[in-house]
Amino acid sequence: MADTFRALYAEQAEGRPRVSLVSLTDEVLPPGEVTLDVAYSSLNYKDGLALTGKGKVLRKLPLVPGIDVAGTVRASTSPRFRPGEQVFATGWNLGESLWGGYTQRTRLGAALLQHLAPGLDLKRTMALGTAGFTAMLCVQALEEAGALKSGRDVVVTGAGGGVGSVAVALLAALGQKVAASTGRPELRDWLTSLGATSLVDRAELAQKGPPLGAERWGAGVDTVGGQTLATVLSQTAYYGAVAACGLAGGADLPASVFPFILRGVKLLGVESVLAPMEQRERAWKRLGELLPMEKLDASTTVVPMTRLLEVAPDILAGKTRGRVVVDVNA
Ligand SMILES: NC(=O)c1ccc[n+]([C@@H]2O[C@H](COP(=O)([O-])OP(=O)(O)OC[C@H]3O[C@@H](n4cnc5c(N)ncnc54)[C@H](OP(=O)(O)O)[C@@H]3O)[C@@H](O)[C@H]2O)c1
Questions:
Q1: Which helix (DSSP H) or strand (DSSP E) does residue 35 occupy?
Q2: Ligand 1 mean position to 45 CA, how many Å?
């Protein structure tokens, strides 16, 4: 009998992608130097879009979704990776046009893979995944812009989500005062335990205000976009900066130029999918060093791959808290 493995597989059905749990054999694995026994993947906002068919995330079918993957090398023709080593990959269009992580076995190019960062195991690497990596990129962008020196509050929007919660914990670890913006007041205790020093009702930031408001924030990490990003920009203090990475609340930006030209505020775009390897290695090393692991563990829910299709709509509905790790062997 052929050696089979389980995967979530997206196929074209009646003109649109349909994802189901299937049993596959090695013959369908894509080309690549490294074959992996996958341990964990994760659920990101983009994965929610792919699994529910709501966004145009899946650009090639058939395909295994899941933008993050971590596992053990099963076979390798690359001198960089040996059987038995633990490795991972995030982004790179995995789960979009290349096979992603919702599978017990995969094959991919060695250039996309990294060894685990010191201090992180396979599960915690996926507890971070694209969301945690992106949070680190946002924080580093603020540091490089010199925006974390003012002593003012740093606002994080969508604080209850994956990117937001890791950003709260990272900024707190850097000694920043963190204002966590959330639509879920019931998350207060958890956000405070991550290091938030105050909570902001997300409805407050979603309201249209003056083009320049009172100076409230030294810096910001925005995962929401839309009016929320416009409001945060208008309330950012002289020479502050806002790292924008998300659109959980909208893709438009109904802002004016006043924060930029009258206060020198910087809007920093953050993109994680095609980040160069050097930037990845630096950010992941920093994540392993800076993030208190007990905070990450307290923000992680593990979901078996067999139940992922049921859970996927929750991330789009803003119902998941922190990060969701996917156990592909359960
Ligand atoms: N640029 C990149 O490379 C990159 C990488 C990763 C993620 N992203 C983007 O960043 C965003 C967050 O990703 P994630 O994985 O952290 O998702 P997530 O876990 O779902 O977090 C998003 C959070 O945003 C808030 N939210 C949800 N719907 C909202 C709405 N309609 N209005 C205002 N706030 C809302 C919720 O937080 P509260 O309940 O606390 O308010 C939710 O938990 C997504 O848009 C994602 O596509 C971009």
A1: strand 34-43
A2: 6
